[in-house]
Amino acid sequence: MAAGTQSQSSKRKASSKSKSNPGITKTGKASMQPDDGVSDLMRDHRKVEELFKQYEATEDDGGKEKLVAQISLELKIHMQLEEEVFYPASRDFVDEQDTVNEAIVEHQSAKDLMAELAGMKPSDEFYDAKVKVLQEMIEHHVGEEEEEYFPEVRRSEMDLKAVGEQMASLRESLMGEMGARPN
Ligand SMILES: [Fe+2]
Ligand SMILES: [Fe+2]
Asked: What is the pLDDT of residue 63?
């Protein structure tokens, strides 16, 4: 009889043969599911993408500065949630530690660029270029999270609801500290 023969090492991974993988699209991307940590993170991704689009359509310096401040605030909170809760919690559920390590390094590059932008004015020669490079960096990073990292975590037995709850409470305190308005 085959039952009970699952090896110790495969215990953490949900069966790869399951007919439907909730939370993963046919093309293997992570999809929205109600009330879990991955969906919360994906909502942030969509919000930041929208803000970058608004930036592209904005001509005046005041509007640009406001959008960059908003993008930076959203990204700072989002990255902190990932770095303090989601990334450490998911280390045990990914095959390669580099999945997590590379994400952290990519965050750092984005933070460096945001720090440079914070010290600049929209009228500066390279302002738009730096915002564009930040946007492309974030698009690349979000693509890797949603096409590889998140689907891998979704296929595992990580408790995404519990992680979502931890992130929600950290989000609330960070937003209070940083003076962010709720969504
Ligand atoms: Fe993310
Ligand atoms: Fe990230």
From this structure: 98
